[in-house]
Specification:
By secondary structure, the chain is mostly beta strands. It folds into 8 domains: 168 residues, no CATH class; 66 residues; 78 residues, Immunoglobulin-like (Sandwich); 71 residues, Immunoglobulin-like, CATH 2.60.40.10; 84 residues, Sandwich (Immunoglobulin-like); 88 residues, Immunoglobulins (Immunoglobulin-like, Sandwich), CATH 2.60.40.10; 97 residues, Immunoglobulin-like, CATH 2.60.40; 320 residues, Lipocalin (Beta Barrel), CATH 2.40.128. The protein is built from 3 helices and 80 strands. It is flat. The N terminus is likely disordered. This is Putative Ig domain-containing protein. Pfam families: Big_9, fn3, He_PIG.
Length: 1054
């Protein structure tokens, strides 16, 4: 774009050609103007003062043209600004002309300082449609070129100006070279991508041409990419790109990276089909390119293959062979072809027969295993005799063939068998002839019993194997004598001896002597005499009950153990059994066995001495009874379930009932059925008492029960548990109670504590009531509150006297109170009490600052559903301050320190604990009047509460003491909330103000996490001085607790 000025007076201005703008500053007269033009400066030094008719060339900073690169006398100033100071002048203006602009070029301008009249810009159509003057233009802005044409603008100061215009014509050139040429090779072709040149020479590009090197092959098209065909595979090529417009073809781009076109190739490889293990296989495959194909195995555990295709089999299974072909300079790599085929088992190879040893009617054949198992494990080897065809099989060598005829010559062959079949027979073995042989005799053990003092007791040897010619005593007996006569043995015990004895003997023939065998001898004692004592000595036994279990121990002492018991005379009731080893009589007895029985019990000792005693037994009619039981329970443990059927009569029982637990808080008792584990598949039967002790209780706990059957209801049986308390469990339980108590009290203190700030002070000064009270029920309790102050009392008195706007005292004393009932999960259906009294004094430093001190007393009772109550009295004191940091925005903060004294009262353990505490509370709040009738009250609050519980102890009525470690309970609560209220005047002059509020926050450290609340309410101020307030509040806690509450109140001024 070339531009020239019109015939106006330039007053010596100097033009810079090309893409550099020339800035002419003409000052018509001395005029009081101070301005700063931020630009890239040519030819001016910092602080240079432009006076009347002084000109210098200035270049406006145009972001898209990069004018800062202009040559000549250009000097870029670091500050980028030049001060233009014309004193006592009339009008000043700055012209920019002779500029080459393109659509989208941006000129930024900025004017600062003092000017008298007005400021405006004159620009031609190049910067927008219409051109002309643009009055009231701000002191900074942006001008954007939208088309070619006259290019120029001026910035004027003051009330007068002169006019100079520009005429511009467009002179197109050839386009620049494209950039970023990138080639992608194909089969005898390449695709070339590129980026269009940034400069099209001010004329539309009509086509692009891609040229190959070598070969000079071309492709022409309107846009990237272009494909060049006819290339030679295997030859390396680079490519350049040129752009063409109406003027001509521009310079070529830089050459692309070299690429090489390549052709494809395909492999033909046929499946050879199933192959037998041990067979040979040679594979062939071809490629349409004529290049050699290579083979590889994908299942080396089944088969292997050479690169030329020779296959070897390692096992049966599926063989996978891959045929592949790598690429070359003219071809890409071929897609591999994989063929899978089965390798099946074959019969094993023949074993190799070895030596043969003849025996008596048999022969033992040794052989070498098959060299190949045919791909399947060999299951057996079979030896066949010739003549006769007798066989024997086995898994390993050697194998013995039995049933042969002594004196007959035999040879043998061996075969191997697997899952595929049986191998061919081995070559025949050498011939052998079985023959009979005389075996050595075998002596066996013998056991005899002889009487004491007897003699020449015959002993018959136990002989087998070869026929014995003689027997001999190998080792003599210890308590007698053994003699041999031929093949007979006799034994004589030592006189007077009775008991066990033994000796050994051997048998001999021509072949050899047997191993020694043992003769075990028992020498019986003569009939003994002994004295026995029975317990009970005789007479009536403990009565039994028909159909019930029974146990009575009859014990005899004396004689030589072991003792054996038996029924000597009489009869036992049906179902009763006498234990022959222990003498115990046991049931259960059969039904209908009522009556009196007489019988004698006999005992016999190891020496056959015996005695007897006579007894009588009465079997009573069957009734229902329950037995008393005692269970000892170690500290910290739970007793096993007690089987109530044991010792009871009159079953089977249809039910069992608890009658009492004494004391009631000693533990929890339940009756269960069929839950006791059983080893056998038969499910457990009967009724069981399950008792869970209170870990805090020690002493006897008694549980009464009754059993019911078809016969009726039993007496009351008693199970007595002798309990010891678990100090660790007691400490854990009480520590948990204390922790929950302190945590709940911290939350209630955080929500109930009241310290009035500047906003409340101002509200109190507008009060019409001397005392404010509130009652708020909710799902977890009820709150009653009151508050007043000297400022509120004074304001109420002034209101009653008709005085408004009276001056307020800087000093104020206030009091506030809260009473709450509360209930949480641990309380069950019992309600606790919390009360807090806040009082303090503050001083108004000025309208926006207040300081004071406050004292707070709290008391809390917290009963639980386990007959436990914790109570505490606490206090907090410290300074506070309130500042108005913005109109209607208040910052309140306080720092309090205190402590508490607390009592623990449980069913068995009592104690006390003390705490020290401190609390930091800060908030931002205010009232924003959205309009005359709408008020928004936001509040951002953060509270940090730390309370340290000192070490403490508890004790029980027996004087036992348990020491419990203290702990730190901390909460950090941050919340953000707001309430919006709008007043409406009704037709009866009453004022209705609906309200909506929401609060959300997070309680960290030991707190419950996220919490929040939603509220909705209203207040209705009647014309007759009655006022009605109502609200609904929904609370959400991070641990899942939710509560909802409502408030409704009415008041009247008198």
């Amino acid at each position: 774009m070339n531009c020239v000025t019109d015939a106006g007076t330039d007053r010596g201005q100097r033009y810079l050609r090309g893409k550099v703008a020339t800035l002419i500053a003409n000052w018509i007269s001395v005029f009081s103007v101070f301005a700063t033009l931020c630009a890239m400066i040519f030819g001016l030094k910092p602080g240079f003062v432009l006076s009347r008719y002084r000109q210098s060339a200035l270049a406006i900073l145009v972001s898209t043209l990069g004018l800062g690169a202009a040559a000549g006398e250009a000097q870029a100033m670091s500050a980028g600004c030049i001060a233009i100071n014309a004193a006592n002048g009339a009008t000043g203006n700055i012209d920019v002309h002779n500029v080459e602009f393109r659509s989208g070029d941006v000129i930024n301008y900025s004017v600062t300082g003092t000017y008298s009249d007005f400021f405006y810009i004159d620009y031609s159509g190049v910067f927008g449609s219409g051109g002309g003057w643009n009055y009231s233009t701000p002191q900074s802005g942006t001008l954007t070129a939208t088309s070619t044409g006259v290019g120029g603008f001026r910035i004027l100061y003051g009330s007068t100006s002169y006019t100079k215009s520009l005429s511009c014509t467009s002179v197109p050139t050839v386009p620049d070279a494209p950039t970023g040429a990138t080639a992608t090779a194909g089969d005898e072709q390449a695709s070339v991508a590129f980026t269009a040149p940034s400069n099209n020479g001010d004329a539309t590009i009509t086509s692009y041409t891609v040229t190959s090197n070598p070969g000079g092959l071309t492709a022409t098209g309107a846009a990237s990419p272009l494909v060049v065909n006819g290339l030679t595979n295997g030859t390396s090529y680079t490519f350049t790109v040129t752009a063409k417009n109406s003027v001509g073809t521009g310079t070529a781009s830089s050459a692309s990276r070299a690429v090489t076109p390549k052709g494809s190739q395909t492999i033909t490889f046929a499946n050879p089909g199933a192959q037998a293990y041990g067979s040979s296989l040679s594979l062939t495959a071809t490629a349409d390119s004529g290049l050699p194909v290579s083979f590889s195995s994908q299942t080396s555990g089944v088969c292997t293959v050479t690169s030329a295709g020779a296959v070897s089999f390692a096992s049966t299974g599926t063989c996978k062979i891959e045929a592949s072909l790598a690429g070359s300079s003219a071809f890409t790599a071929a897609t591999a072809v994989v063929q899978s085929f089965a390798v099946t088992a074959a019969a094993p190879s023949s074993p190799t027969v070895g030596s043969v040893t003849a025996g008596d009617g048999e022969a033992t054949v040794s052989f070498t295993a098959s060299s190949s198992d045919g791909g399947s494990p060999i299951s057996k080897y079979t030896v066949t005799a010739n003549p006769g065809g007798l066989t024997a099989s086995g898994s390993t060598s050697p194998i013995t063939v039995s049933g042969l005829k002594n004196g007959t010559s035999y040879s043998f062959t061996v075969t191997a068998t697997n899952s595929a079949g049986t191998s061919s027979s081995s070559a025949s073995s050498a011939s052998v002839t079985p023959a009979a042989t005389l075996a050595a005799p075998v002596a066996g053990g013998v056991a005899i019993t002889v009487a004491a003092n007897s003699s020449a007791n015959a002993v018959t040897p136990s002989l087998s194997g070869g026929t014995a010619a003689s027997v001999d005593i190998a080792s003599a007996p210890s308590h007698g004598a053994a003699t041999v006569s031929g093949l007979s043995i006799s034994y004589t015990p030592t006189s007077g001896y009775s008991g066990s004895d033994s000796f050994t003997y051997t048998a001999t023939n021509a072949t050899g002597t047997s191993a020694a065998a043992t003769v075990t001898v028992t020498v019986t004692a003569p009939a003994p005499t002994a004295s026995f004592t029975f317990s009970p000595t005789g007479g009536a036994l403990t009565a039994a009950m028909a159909g019930e279990d029974y146990s009575e121990q009859i014990t005899a002492t004396g004689g030589t153990a072991p003792l054996t018991y038996s029924l000597a005379s009489g009869s036992l009731p049906k179902g009763m059994v006498l234990n022959v080893s222990t003498g115990e009589l046991t049931g259960p007895l059969d039904e209908d066995t009522e009556g009196k029985y007489s019988f004698a019990i006999k005992v016999v000792d190891a020496k056959s001495a015996s005695a007897s005693a006579s007894y009588s037994l009465t079997v009573k009619e069957r009734t229902v009874t329950a037995a008393n039981k005692v269970v000892n329970v170690a500290a910290g443990s739970s007793p096993a379930d007690v089987n109530l059927n044991d010792g009871a009569t009159g079953g089977p029982f249809t039910s069992a009932d608890l009658t009492f637990v004494e004391p009631a808080n000693a533990g929890t008792a339940t009756i269960i059925r069929g839950t006791v584990a059983a080893i056998s598949a038969t499910p457990p039967r009967g009724w069981y008492l399950k008792f869970t002790p209170n870990p805090s209780y020690s002493g006897d706990a008694k549980v009464g029960y009754k059993l019911v059957s078809s016969l009726g209801t039993s007496n009351t049986g008693t199970v007595t548990y002798r309990l010891a308390y678990d100090a660790k469990d007691v400490a854990t339980e009480i520590s948990t109670l204390v922790e929950n108590f302190v945590k709940s009290r911290q939350s209630m203190i955080s929500s109930a504590i009241k310290i009035p700030g500047l906003m409340e002070r101002r509200q109190a000064e507008q009060a019409t009531e001397a005392v404010t009270t509130t009652v708020s029920p909710s799902a977890e309790g009820m709150s009653l509150g009151f508050s007043t102050s000297t400022a509120q009392i004074e304001a109420a008195r002034n209101h009653a006297d008709g005085i408004s706007g009276g001056a307020s005292s800087p000093f104020n004393v206030w009091i506030d109170g809260t009473l709450m009932t509360h209930n949480r999960n641990d309380n069950g259906d019992r309600w606790g009490f919390f009360g807090m009294v806040d009082l303090g004094a503050d001083y108004l430093l000025n309208e926006k600052a207040l300081v004071g001190v406050s004292l707070h007393y709290d008391r809390m009772t917290d009963p639980t559903d386990e007959d436990v109550e914790l109570t505490g009295n606490g206090w907090l004191a410290g300074p506070y301050a309130s500042l108005e940091i913005g109109k209607g925005v208040f910052w309140d903060t306080s720092l309090l320190y205190g402590g508490s004294s607390n009592d623990i009262d449980t069913a068995y353990w009592d104690g006390a604990f003390d705490t020290t505490r401190w609390m930091a509370d800060t908030s931002l709040k205010g009232q924003l009047m959205l309009d005359e009738k709408t008020v928004l009250t936001p509040k951002l609050r953060a509270v940090y509460f730390s309370e340290k519980v000192e070490d403490y102890s508890v004790s029980n009525a027996a004087g036992d003491r348990i020491d419990i470690d203290g702990f730190d309970e901390k909460q950090f609560r941050i919340s953000l909330g707001a309430e919006i209220a709008r007043s409406f005047t009704l037709e009866n002059d009453a004022t209705l103000t609906p309200k909506l509020g929401a609060t959300g926050g997070f309680s960290g450290i030991d707190g419950a996490g996220m919490f929040g609340s939603l509220s909705a309410g209203f207040s209705l101020q009647m014309a007759n001085a009655w006022a009605i307030d109502g609200s609904v509040l929904v609370n959400f806690e991070g641990d899942g607790d939710k509560s909802i509450g409502a408030k409704l109140g009415a008041s009247k001024r008198f």
